[in-house]
Design goal:
The complex is a heterotetramer, with two copies of chain A and two copies of chain B. By secondary structure, chain A is an alpha+beta fold. Chain A has ten helices and four strands, in the order ααβαβααβαβαααα. In chain A, about 75% of the residues lie in helices and about 10% in strands. The chains are: A alpha+beta, B alpha/beta. Bound molecules: adenosine-5'-triphosphate (2 copies) and magnesium ion (2 copies).
Chain lengths: ~300, ~220, ~300, ~220
């Protein structure tokens, strides 16, 4: 513990005495983290957008006009028992006809003159997302089609397929971008800390010459790396918060009306904590690699 | 007690820096180490505090074979030894005061004592006025005295001084010599490397004379 | 010229003699440029996606069943003369009815029993994009509605408005991200080069002491900065090309079928050239700032 | 011809390094500069090659007022002056050979001559065997000789040597002194700062003696 307190104190005075090199490191780390967080921010918000689109993947079950109460409740049980179904809504015969006439309001007179309602009642099922959702839908559609009281089923197979592919693409793309960013981030941190150690080469050598314990030599640098990364990450969170607040003021309203129910949100708190923990870890890892390699090579 | 048996050291690039050196220096002794430039004086001192390794031979310091000390534990050896480096090795971004404190921090001295001991060491070498200067703001001889203060501050058992008066005028050089003698009078073993004929003449200590890596005489 | 050749040679040997520091700079620059290019890549591809969506902003003109040949050609002239109209397609009464019946194929019997076609023929107009497109559409819609032979017009006003807002948002967002990235990039480059100069402090001082001309001192460092940035940028283009090729192999087909006519494209050549030129410029600027400040402060 | 009139220099921190110095050194003269550590020797030399500025007074070198030279043109002054720095200032990442070439590249010597002149300079100081060593692989005295070779290689009109033999044994020191005398015999003005009484006794050149920043005597 005493070692750590001392390491902290020394790290602090080291930072003070070469504030220029440290500022460079911190700014670089800040920029790297900002980019990572911007990406997280976009991801968090895209996710809720996708959620909205997701609702549009649905299976429509058209019911016979003559469906019996019993058949219908069998059907509803069947649906309720299918664990893939996320939500169900019932559109009655009357509702469907009203909707239809609204769409063709200019032809209202003609349609009214029909004298009867040609449209069926229907059940609209939303499926929870999973990678084999399409298969689940197809299978359930077959089952339902065979039921009494079902006139036909409809689920826009090709549209769903396309949407699934798009989601898969999006996820892979985001993963690739995120991976690249994280690798870049660790590289940048380890490199800036290497430079910081490099600029204090003589000091490290001298400590060893004067009889310092290896751990005593290492800890201030580990501490310094962690402090730098932590400060960089905190600053970046500040930067991103500002960007977020600006965007929110500017776009919340129009976005909300465009994608119903969407609400621009900040990086979740849990993620912010992960980021800070991650910064400490990367700072530690970067310093550790550099200082150990340095001690091995420079001290013979 | 430092015992050296048949020591050989060859640097990469095939410079034979030390050839078959055998020596004994008693605890509490004061010896001069002399020889032409390139004779191997610095190399010998570096080997004693484990900064360079050697090829053949054996070195015992207080009966401990220094080649057998694990790298992780070399610090135990170095804590017994105070070194004045030929090129001073002061940290340019620390003040004189901080440079001397640094040596005590490195060996984890209790922080209460650091200020006091630093001040005492500065008084010994006559540099209290320069305590807040940075090394590059000092004259050459002043830097050298800071290096000496740093070597003394941890009260080592052995003092290795590599040309500690090269940049000092004869008067101050003598003052500095007296500092080493004072430490010596309290039981510290001193090895004092020097070119200066005046120094060698000024006192009647044993002179170890190296020439092109070989031991020429130990008078 | 001789100065430059020499500067180049010295820069090269400087890089060789402190290859570790340079590698750090180059990798950092590469990561920064990769991020910028990834962003450009997404932007280039989003653009063509938006192009596709853009086609869906249309004004539908329903024609009277009884429209005269003359009225219809007047109408078509009017449309042809409106410079905002990008494309026009005609959907005949028969076509509209066929489409309608296809949508409600399960009710074909009932619809056929109607005995007549209730749907009108229509003209579908696409408008070229401009910031005041909605106004242009509204105005033109008024004009057309007053024409003989037009039954009604329809243009989903609120949908267009939302789409426009979304586009504006997207553009601003991309601009903000791009701006942040570019500022970050210049910062990183200037910082890494500052570190590189910093690590050769004594050398610069010594040159001045030995009687070197100021320009002679500066140019090798300017050259070094430019070389580093250029190499970093070239490497990043390579990295992004690989990412692109991978994405293309994996996703071209599914993307193409999802968004008709979309084709995943690489950063345009002209942009690649801008990036290289930009890297040279940032390298130069970064070095210039650093070396000038250093010469002013360190050489008294 | 170096003329110094009533020169004053105070460092930040209020060290009065030079007080009212007036001096004249003729072209082609050889002078020793001596004085205790901290007397101001290095400061005086630094001012002569425009590395430090001064507070009051005037300095003319070959009739040119060096305070009036624009910063961009200071290199013209420095090209006339070869300097042996007290702390050598060798570049640790360049070999001995490259360190000496570096001085010629800095003044834009034609590259054909650089190899030849570097080799010649190394021969003069007796270090041809060490040409591919890095400075930290050299003994203290060898480093000093590299610094001397670098100062000589551009054939300057004036040589400022700040303690150039501090780390050399008397024999080699005398060799080095002869090198400076050889340059002097070809018309180079030499200012040779030293503490060594032996040096001062060995030759009968004029001795400029500083004490605590004041001119004590110029014999
Ligand atoms: N790290 C090294 N690598 C290679 N050769 C070295 C190294 N250090 C010293 N040498 C060589 O070993 C020989 C002895 O060097 P050393 O420094 O021990 O001499 P010295 O007696 O201290 O000389 P001086 O009085 O000039 O300081 C010299 O020829 C030197 O060039
Ligand atoms: N950059 C500086 N800033 C502040 N004080 C300085 C600076 N350089 C030198 N001094 C002080 O000025 C005085 C004269 O220093 P100078 O280096 O000229 O002495 P010197 O005669 O060369 O001594 P030595 O023989 O030890 O090299 C000393 O007291 C020194 O501490
Ligand atoms: Mg030595
Ligand atoms: Mg001096």
């Amino acid at each position: 513990m005493k070692l750590l307190t001392r390491a902290f104190r020394i790290a602090f005075s080291n930072i003070k005495s070469s504030i220029d090199v440290c500022a460079v490191s911190v700014i670089t780390i800040m920029v790297a983290f900002s980019i990572l967080e911007l990406f997280l921010l976009v991801f968090a918000n895209l996710n809720s957008l996708v959620e909205t689109w997701n609702k549009q993947v649905q299976l429509i079950v058209y019911l016979d006009d003559s469906v019996s109460k019993k058949d219908q409740s069998t059907l509803e049980n069947l649906i309720a028992n299918n664990k893939n179904v996320q939500a169900t809504s019932f559109v009655s015969k009357g509702q469907a006809w009203t909707d239809f006439k609204k769409t063709f309001s200019d032809k209202a007179a003609i349609l009214n003159s029909l004298g009867f309602n040609p449209l069926p009642a229907s059940l609209r099922l939303q499926f929870s997302y999973s990678s084999d959702r399409l298969k689940a839908i197809q299978k359930f559609a077959k089952t339902l089609e065979a039921q009494n009281g079902v006139e036909s089923v409809e689920y826009g197979k090709s549209w769903i397929l396309k949407f699934e592919t798009f989601l898969a693409f999006l996820r892979l793309f985001l993963l690739a971008v995120g991976g690249l960013l994280i690798v870049g981030l660790i590289l940048i941190i380890s490199n800036t800390i290497k430079l910081s150690i490099y600029s204090r080469k003589e000091e490290i050598q001298l400590m060893a010459l004067l009889g310092a314990r290896p751990n005593f030599i290492k800890w201030p640098f580990l501490m310094e790396g962690m402090l730098q990364a932590l400060v960089g990450a905190l600053l970046s969170l500040g930067v991103i918060k500002i960007v977020y607040l600006y965007m929110k003021v500017q776009f919340q309203d129009s976005m909300a009306s465009l994608f119903r129910g969407i609400y621009i949100q900040f990086i979740p708190d849990s993620f912010a904590i992960y980021i800070l923990a991650g910064s400490l870890f990367s700072g530690w890892l970067g310093s550790y690699i550099s200082i150990n390699r340095f001690l091995k090579s420079e001290l013979k | 007690m430092i015992q050296i048996f048949n020591l050989y050291k060859t640097y990469k690039g095939n410079t034979q820096a030390l050839i078959d050196i055998s020596l004994e220096i008693k605890s509490g002794e004061f010896v001069f180490l002399t020889g032409q430039s390139g004779a191997g004086k610095s190399t010998l001192l570096k080997i004693l505090y484990s900064w360079e390794n050697f090829d053949k031979g054996q070195i015992l310091i207080n009966g401990i074979n220094i080649a057998k000390i694990r790298e992780d534990n070399q610090y135990t050896l170095r804590r017994k030894i105070g070194v004045v480096f030929q090129d001073y090795r002061l940290l340019p971004r620390k003040t004189v005061f901080e440079n001397i404190s640094f040596a005590q921090e490195a060996v984890e001295s209790p922080s209460e004592r650091i200020r006091f001991k630093t001040w005492e060491a500065l008084k010994k070498v006559g540099l209290t006025q320069k305590k807040d200067s940075f090394p590059l703001q000092l004259a050459g001889g002043e830097q050298q005295r800071v290096a000496i203060a740093r070597a003394l501050v941890n009260s080592p058992e052995i003092l290795l001084a590599d040309e500690p008066t090269g940049n000092l005028d004869p008067e101050i050089a003598l003052e500095i010599l007296k500092l080493f003698e004072h430490a010596n009078s309290q039981g510290v073993t001193v090895i004092f490397a020097t070119h200066s004929a005046e120094m060698l003449k000024a006192r009647d200590y044993r002179v170890i004379n190296l020439g092109k890596g070989r031991l020429i005489s130990t008078k």
